[in-house]
Amino acid sequence: MDRRGLEPLRIGAVTIDFTGERVVDAGGRRIALRPQSFAVLSRLAAAPDQVVAKSVLMDAVWPGLAVTEDSLVQCIHEIRRALGPEGERALRTVPRRGYVLHPPGSPPDPPPGPSLAREPAPPIRRPRRVGQVALALLLLAAALVAARGSGGARAP
User: Fold this and answer.
1) Residue 75, CA distances (Å) to 1, 21, 27, 84, 117 in order
2) H-only helix segments in 8-102
3) pLDDT attached to residue 106
4) What CATH number is associated with residue 61?
5) What is the pTM of this model?
6) Which of 92, 62, 78 is nearest to 23 (CA)?
């Protein structure tokens, strides 16, 4: 992800420098953040106050790799720890959907109401591998039936 267009972001006593790819405290000391965690934070900062789906974050940080959501959860935990007390308020979890970064000065979350309650749940993503395995089993069964049929029809 190109982080050059992101302005430095201050959350509480912590400053995030996207160009330099570093997080520093009020005293200028660097706060350790793994590259994957910084990539998640950068992706969230690129879409402030918007829910970023878990799948979008996973595809951005681990493209083409099979990782569990636990990898993403660990990154979120590390980001919150790095951001300090403001981290819990600034980085919110949206259950079953994703995460949203509320930078300081952004509008607060809207109160829960009927419009939020009626929002449809995101579609369940089923791995393509399940369909591939089912097709392979179907082809294997057809081959076995064909083999049995041709074995009994031999001429004397």
Assistant:
1) 16, 15, 24, 14, 29
2) 35-45, 54-61, 69-83, 85-90
3) 52
4) 1.10.10.10
5) 0.64
6) 78
